[in-house]
Write a structure and sequence with these properties.
18 helices, six-stranded parallel beta sheet, eight-stranded antiparallel beta sheet, 43% helix, alpha/beta, 545 residues
Length: 545
């Protein structure tokens, strides 16, 4: 009996041991599983935060491309041509199948949205995403899939696409978007051809009030810019009324008006006589080696902004290398190209600080001419080396400094193009300005109603060739008949395939982006504090003198 009891006891002990061991193993397995879950959750959080942090700067993890900055050409230089280019009614895409990348391209082949697949996010669910990044700013459902939208800052947006609408669905795709570029694309896609063509025109108004012809050009033909001259400025109150009328006429447009003047300072000023004149560029250049150029630019910008003006055809970057030049003279800072560069950059920055667009001029350099392009066509005979060291140097340096708009003069520059004036020369605009000097902003012609053009060319043909050459805005300061002639010629050129709508889109995109960058708006101004502006001008004149 005792033997049986011992055997039973032994069996009981063994059974208890087996049970205890099994429980221990199960507990260990549970602990290990819990540990692995924590590790995966940590990895998921790290992966998602890496995407978030990169997207805040316009990138995606492990990629150096930045939306809104990187061009498709730069991508091609690094990874080769895309497997395919897809076009929809709204946009174009470059698809890299092996890399699982899709690049959304603007009309000028800038990458503004970057879509990619990230395997590290395959286990991140909707609920986990909310726990890590918070609730999305926007939520959409497309084809039974959910998209989370996070507005990270003023520039960038992160979107995450999930496999389904379920809370446990995981991320299958991520994308970073450059919001300003996307906004421009949205406006461009809504515009009809006649609206786009109107954006290419900057026209003058004939008198101190908005007449019916000018109003019709704005309201019905969608002209995108206005230039005002001395004839338009009689008094402060009248000038303010005119500018406000222009804005009101544009009230139903998809984009605000450029309203511009030539406010250089010195003898080239357009603002009403009640305002004390800003000193000439020569005085600015002579004063302490251009020390006050930024202050002058800021003051000019403040004056213009007070009236609601948003674009200035200044500063002049022509080097005063010819004392017999009939048109430049003290409009230039100096005969020293380096000083012109330095002062030009500073004055442009001062204007920009007041949301006034500086348009540097007269590319590729009007300083060493003996003919006034208002009267006839000047010819520049210098070789390329001389031009690069003198005339082109200020433009090169200002472009590197970030200027967004350039006026091209009516100049025949024999070393580059002995047959065609710079204002509609593909060699000058596309090859030299855009390709060699890497300028990707807005190119504006000098006034097409000038002797240099009217005596030698058809104004309609000159306008067409300027757009074909890579120009963006055609300046027509005088004669409504000339505005009509140019707009009719452009429409005909598109109809006949001389200019493609894609080429028009490229210019309109640059124009819309410029208006966006400088926060151009059609909000009227109520009054101008003339006394305050004059006091600021007098104080700055004392410093310069």
């Amino acid at each position: 009996m005792r033997k049986v009891s011992r055997i039973l006891l032994l069996l009981l002990i063994v059974a208890l041991f087996v049970i205890a061991t099994g429980c221990s193993n199960q507990e260990n397995e549970q602990n290990e599983e819990s540990k692995q879950i924590k590790i995966r959750n940590k990895q998921n959080k790290q992966a998602l935060m890496a995407v978030h942090d990169a997207a805040e700067k316009g990138n995606l993890p492990n990629q150096q491309w930045q939306v809104g900055e990187t061009t498709y050409q730069q991508v091609q230089d690094q990874v080769g041509e895309a497997d395919k280019i897809e076009h929809s009614k709204k946009e174009s895409y470059a698809v890299y199948e092996k890399e699982q990348l899709k690049l959304h391209l603007t009309e000028n082949n800038l990458v503004y949205k970057l879509q990619a697949v990230e395997s590290k996010l395959n286990e991140v669910t909707q609920s986990q995403t909310k726990a890590i990044l918070g609730d999305p700013d926007g939520l959409r459902q497309v084809n039974e899939q959910t998209i989370f939208v996070y507005d990270l800052n003023d520039e960038y947006q992160l979107t995450l696409l999930f496999s389904s609408t379920d809370n446990h669905a995981s991320i299958v795709e991520m994308a970073v978007l450059h919001k300003p570029s996307a906004e421009v694309q949205a406006v461009l896609q809504e515009m009809q051809l006649d609206e786009k063509l109107g954006q290419l025109i900057m026209m003058g108004v004939q008198g101190p009030q908005l007449d019916s012809a000018a109003r019709t050009f704005i309201e019905d033909r969608h002209v995108g810019g206005i230039i005002l001259f001395n004839r338009n400025f009689v008094s402060v109150s009248q000038s303010l009324n005119l500018i406000n009328e222009l804005k009101q006429a544009n009230a139903n447009a998809k984009t605000p008006l450029f309203i511009s003047v030539d406010e250089e300072g010195g003898r080239v000023t357009r603002l009403p006589k009640e305002l004390v004149k800003t000193p000439s560029n020569r005085k600015v250049g002579n004063a302490a080696n251009g020390k006050y150029a930024y202050d002058i630019g800021e003051l000019i910008g403040r004056k213009m902004s007070a009236f609601g003006l948003n674009m200035d055809f200044a500063p002049v970057l022509d080097v005063d290398s010819n004392p017999k030049n009939p048109v430049i003279g003290d409009r230039s800072y100096s005969a020293d190209a380096q000083l012109v560069s330095k002062a030009g950059i500073q004055q442009a920055n001062g204007m920009a600080s007041q949301h006034v667009i500086p348009v540097v001029k007269h590319f590729p350099g009007h300083g060493d001419t003996s003919v006034d392009s208002h009267i006839d066509l000047p010819v520049i005979t210098h070789n390329k080396e001389r031009l690069k060291n003198i005339e082109l140097l200020p433009f090169k340096q200002v472009i590197e400094g970030g200027v967004h708009a350039v006026m091209v003069g009516h100049l025949l520059v024999e070393a580059y193009d002995p047959k065609t004036p710079a204002s509609f020369s593909k060699i000058i605009i596309q090859d030299l300005l855009r390709d060699e000097l890497q300028f990707d902003g807005v190119v504006i012609t000098d006034d097409l109603v000038m002797g240099a053009i009217e005596k030698n060319y058809s104004i309609g043909e000159a306008a067409i060739q300027s757009i074909v050459a890579g120009g963006d805005i055609l300046l027509v300061g005088h004669k409504y008949t000339s505005v009509d002639e140019i707009m009719t010629a452009l429409q005909k050129a598109v109809n006949e395939g001389v200019i493609t709508e894609q080429r028009i889109n490229q210019s309109v995109e640059r124009i819309l982006l410029l208006k966006q960058q400088y926060e151009v708006e059609d909000i009227p101004r109520k009054q101008v504090d003339v006394e305050e502006l004059n006091q600021q001008t007098k104080e700055l004149i004392k410093k310069i003198n």
